[in-house]
Specification:
Helix content: 40-55%
Number of helices: 14
Strand order of the largest sheet: 3-2-1-4-5-6
Number of strands: 12
Oligomer: single chain
């Protein structure tokens, strides 16, 4: 890949999240620094508008623009062959991401995205693992709030446990503490896409309940555990908890990391996530609210009734909300023999988790 034109292409640059990533890249690297990068998307006119927004009337090197529709095989393969890395912000990924992953896998182009669509990730692994291994491409999904803080937070406490006590943590609990942020139309569209697909497929619903869905093919599952659907008291944190909406994504990603790294934390390693609550009443209320939303959005009629009041594609939280946002993830690693040697870490984000912090991740 030494002879490729770009180090990185940002695909979906004109979408809500894509613009945030583009602003972060430009503020950090500019257009004539060490990073050779380009803006890419479907609409050449919108790409030009974004370039002007970023660069103004600067006399510096103009950012390169690449127009490529996600459904145009020739355009996608040509684009991915020009760069070392593709960063994609185009969701729902199950609708717009297939050709991009295929092209990167076959051409040895590294790839990252922001998807939380675990059923799509599982399909991409099944279809393209062999090609990626042959070409040397590294395909890394879920590189935003889901699931970077969870995956690296777990790695951090596990490394500390190994270095301090010479052993791996048998169980790691990740708990969302105080947090503030908003949602975008793209995230909502991805979530509704998963729910719609699941509502029409009993097999998919079964897969989504499988905590080892992202395990490498042929790898036997670890300990039998179930997702949290009810309020629970957590004795390690001395607090009530409710289900965390991102847990069904993050838990599967962390388990896959353990597997593809060769099980450094053991085959019996257990990882789970939940949201901390102030008291039992709050845990019950939050659980009931999540259950109600899930029940409504799980039907075609419910989704059609919700769409008018949900954020539209291309929209999202404003600048004030993004900059005032934050998140705290508390990660507790349990020592296998001595609870006095448990370790705990805090992963803190200084912006809105889904957009301000995600654009940096």
């Amino acid at each position: 890949m030494a002879g490729r034109e770009f180090d990185l292409i940002l695909y979906g640059a004109t979408g809500f999240t894509g613009r945030l990533v583009a602003r972060h890249l430009y503020s950090r690297y500019g257009s004539d620094g060490d990073l050779r990068w380009a803006l890419a998307g479907r609409d050449a006119g919108k790409l030009e508008e974004l370039r002007k927004e970023l660069q103004g009337r600067s006399r510096k090197t103009k950012l390169s623009l690449i127009a490529a529709d996600s459904g145009d095989s020739n355009a996608v393969f040509e684009m991915t062959g020009r760069t070392k890395v593709v960063c994609s912000t185009v969701g729902p990924y199950a609708r717009y991401g297939n050709l991009l992953v295929e092209a990167c896998s076959q051409q040895g182009t590294d790839y990252c995205d922001l998807t939380g669509e675990v059923q799509w990730i599982a399909r991409m692994i099944q279809r393209h693992q062999s090609d990626a291994e042959s070409s040397g491409a590294r395909i890394v999904h879920s590189c935003g709030f889901d699931s970077v803080p969870s995956d690296l937070g777990n790695l951090f406490v596990q490394t500390a446990m190994q270095e301090t006590f010479g052993t791996a943590a048998t169980r790691v609990r990740c708990r969302l503490g105080k947090a503030s942020g908003g949602a975008s139309g793209g995230t909502v569209a991805s979530l509704l896409g998963v729910l719609e697909e699941a509502s029409n497929s009993p097999e998919l619903r079964r897969q989504l309940r499988n905590k080892y869905l992202l395990y490498p093919q042929g790898e036997p599952p670890g300990p039998e555990v179930k997702d949290q659907y009810t309020p629970r008291y957590d004795s390690k944190f001395s607090q009530w908890t409710c289900p965390f909406v991102m847990a069904t994504i993050n838990e599967r990603v962390v388990r896959r990391s353990n597997a593809v790294m060769g099980f450094p934390w053991g085959r019996e390693f257990d990882y789970d996530e939940a949201q901390l609550c102030d008291n039992r009443a709050q845990a019950v209320a939050f659980t009931a609210g999540l259950g109600t939303v899930a029940a409504i959005s799980g039907t075609r009629l419910g989704r059609s009734l919700m769409k008018p009041i949900l954020p539209k594609p291309g929209s999202g939280p404003d600048l004030q909300t993004r900059e005032a946002g934050f998140f705290n993830l508390h990660i507790h690693a349990e020592h296998p023999q001595d609870s006095s040697k448990d370790l705990r870490a805090l992963v803190h984000g200084d912006r809105d988790p889904g957009y301000g912090a995600t654009s940096k991740m």
